[in-house]
Design brief:
The protein is an alpha/beta fold and about 180 residues long. α2 crosses α3 and α2 crosses α6. It is globular.
Length: about 180
């Protein structure tokens, strides 16, 4: 799908598998610092190759500032010729959809494709809101999974068109 002058492509990606939340918390560390597992990094490298196969170029790559999302974004960035990663606070867990919409309107004015990396359940709610106007999720994102939404410009809730949702396994199969 190519973006026309009336829409942009929004690629929504959930972070790759991270260390166990409870185990990490027992160490007294903040959940925002919880990193990907070694296996999660390996899987995400293949997922990023598959993502690149279906989305050949990105103009903006934005991520939650949480370590696991940032590490996922860095893996994707390497697949796309080491592009710049922008850390966006509204993509952190609990970020407000209205704040994200304002960020998207500002950053999506002159670009064709934006990828965001974040967390569940926020991504499922955001996807539903952009497509239906209601934040009740109709799909969920597996760790390392992705979706593509055509978002009108200016971005308006309920007017997006969901093109696909791909599981991590499908992304890895596309990498072959």
């Amino acid at each position: 799908m190519s973006a026309d002058s009336d829409s942009l492509r929004l690629v929504v990606v959930r972070h790759a598998p991270a260390e166990d939340r409870a185990t990490f918390a027992r160490g007294g560390r903040n959940d925002a610092e919880r990193p990907l597992t070694a296996r999660g990094r390996e899987k995400m490298i293949a997922n990023a190759r598959g993502l690149h196969a279906v989305v050949p170029s990105l103009d903006v790559l934005a991520t939650s500032p949480y370590a696991r999302a940032n590490e996922t974004a860095e893996i994707i960035a390497r697949e796309y010729d080491s592009m710049h990663v922008e850390r966006v606070s509204v993509l952190a867990p609990g970020g407000r959809r209205d704040d994200f919409l304002e960020w998207l309107r500002t950053n999506g004015r002159s670009v064709a494709t934006i990828a965001i990396i974040g967390h569940e359940p926020d991504l499922g709610e955001l996807t539903a809101w952009l497509v239906t106007g209601e934040p009740t999720p109709f799909c969920s994102f597996k760790k390392g999974g992705a979706a593509l939404i055509a978002v009108p410009t200016p971005a308006t809730p309920g007017r997006g068109v969901l093109h696909w949702v791909l599981s991590p396994a499908v992304l890895r199969s596309l990498a072959r």
